[in-house]
């Protein structure tokens, strides 16, 4: 019983860790792009002679963003982290003491460091179109939030810095898109139109609802291109099928196979366990307890009716997950789950065997 429970914990932990790692890489690169966006906004303001706004944007990278990724950079290259932090710290002071050419040159130098950071922390994955589409999605979501904080319901700019942040993040998203659009076979023209329409909406200070709808359409299009189907129902469907297999194996007297199938069930459940616990921790504990109970019954060779009773209870709890928990899952996790869906079963078989 103890070894079975340890295996359950291991499978859940492995699945959760893989999802979190995938999400963190996308978020890391998105934050790097946000730093670039802030610096570009600073440069544009210096160009038109608004040093106050230029300084405000130059301060954002070190004050708001770098702090969130500094430990990741230090973990792989402490020297590079120190150099980048020093340059970002010094950037606001250069707004008034350097010429525009000198300032833009320094921003270019920092961008080269940022590109080096991405290579060090994320590696080649960060250059793949599919990965960059996910970065674009995150940038658009951040731009939507900034715009919502900047513009009033009356269509007036209430916070110019946040408004320009929204513009800058969209500009970064568009720049990334332009770099990968040749690899997009279908829908490229539609996305180009979306970006142009979004630029117009921001420039014309359209309502927050209009901008949110525009961004939502773009995100949906990118998700379609990524073929992001909801893998969570695939996990629960797989669990349902495995529960049927457990019954058949047990009825045939193959208790070892039945126990192995329970471990495979738990591997599939592991990919949604965090969200179940976040939604209702008691639900997660009940489900994990039921799987442990099922393993215990198999080891004790109880009657098939007793096995079916536990499996029926598991089915009811999984039904709750499908109806109540899955609609609450964040989009970012859907992306992470989709990226690891194809190896879930292989992982479980390797661990069990």
State the total count of DSSP E strands: 0
Determine the strand fraction and express it as a percent band: under 5%
What is the number of helices? 15
Order of helices and strands: HHHHHHHHHHHHHHH
* Terminal residue distance: 17 Å
How does the major sheet shape up?
none
Give helix % range.
over 70%
Rounded to an integer, what's the Rg over CA atoms? 25 Å
Tell me the count of domains: 3
Structural class: mainly alpha
**What form results from the Cα inertia axes?**
elongated
Plain-language structure description:
The protein is mainly alpha-helical and 353 residues long. The protein has three domains: 25-122, Four Helix Bundle (Hemerythrin (Met), subunit A), CATH 1.20.120; 128-227, Four Helix Bundle (Hemerythrin (Met), subunit A) (Up-down Bundle); 229-352. It has 15 helices and no strands. The protein has helices spanning 2-47, 51-76, 78-97, 100-121, 129-150, 160-180, 188-203, 208-225, 231-251, 255-270, 273-279, 281-299, 304-325, 331-340, 344-352. The chain is elongated, with a radius of gyration of 25 Å. The model is unreliable at 14-21 and 329-349 (pLDDT under 50).
List the helices and strands and how they pair.
Blueprint (H helix, E strand, L loop, with lengths): L1 H46 L3 H26 L1 H20 L2 H22 L7 H22 L9 H21 L7 H16 L4 H18 L5 H21 L3 H16 L2 H7 L1 H19 L4 H22 L5 H10 L3 H9 L1
Helix pairs in contact: 1-2, 1-4, 1-5, 1-6, 1-10, 1-14, 2-3, 3-4, 5-6, 5-8, 6-7, 7-8, 9-10, 9-13, 10-12, 10-15, 11-12, 12-13
């Amino acid at each position: 019983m103890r070894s079975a429970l340890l295996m359950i914990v291991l499978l859940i932990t492995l699945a959760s860790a893989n999802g979190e790692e995938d999400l963190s890489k996308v978020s890391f690169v998105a934050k790097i792009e946000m730093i670039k966006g802030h610096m570009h906004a600073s440069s544009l303001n210096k160009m038109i002679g608004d040093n106050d706004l230029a300084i405000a944007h130059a301060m954002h990278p070190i004050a708001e963003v770098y702090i969130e990724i500094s430990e990741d950079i230090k973990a792989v290259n402490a020297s590079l982290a120190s150099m980048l932090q020093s340059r970002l710290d010094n950037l606001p002071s250069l707004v008034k003491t350097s010429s525009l050419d000198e300032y833009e040159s320094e921003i270019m130098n920092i961008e080269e460091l940022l590109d080096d950071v991405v290579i060090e922390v994320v590696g080649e994955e960060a250059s793949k179109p599919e990965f960059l589409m996910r970065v674009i999605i995150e940038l658009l979501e951040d731009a939507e939030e900034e715009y919502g904080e900047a513009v009033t319901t009356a269509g007036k700019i209430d916070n110019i810095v946040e408004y320009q942040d929204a513009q800058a993040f969209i500009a970064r998203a568009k720049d990334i898109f332009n770099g990968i659009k040749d690899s997009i076979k279908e829908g490229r023209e539609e996305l180009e139109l979306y970006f142009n329409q979004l630029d117009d909406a921001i420039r014309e200070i359209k309502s927050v609802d209009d901008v949110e709808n525009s961004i939502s359409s773009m995100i949906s299009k990118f998700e379609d291109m990524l073929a992001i189907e909801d893998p969570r129902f695939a996990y629960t469907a797989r669990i349902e099928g495995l529960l049927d297999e457990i019954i058949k194996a047990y009825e045939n007297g193959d208790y070892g196979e039945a126990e192995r199938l329970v471990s495979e069930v738990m591997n599939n459940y592991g990919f949604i366990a965090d969200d179940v616990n976040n939604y209702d921790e008691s639900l997660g504990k009940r489900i994990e307890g039921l799987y442990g109970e099922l393993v215990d019954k198999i080891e004790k060779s109880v009657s098939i009716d007793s096995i079916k009773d536990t499996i029926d209870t598991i089915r009811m709890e999984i039904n709750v997950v499908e109806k109540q928990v899955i609609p609450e899952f964040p989009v970012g996790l859907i992306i992470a789950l989709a990226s690891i869906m194809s190896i879930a079963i292989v992982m479980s078989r390797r661990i069990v065997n």
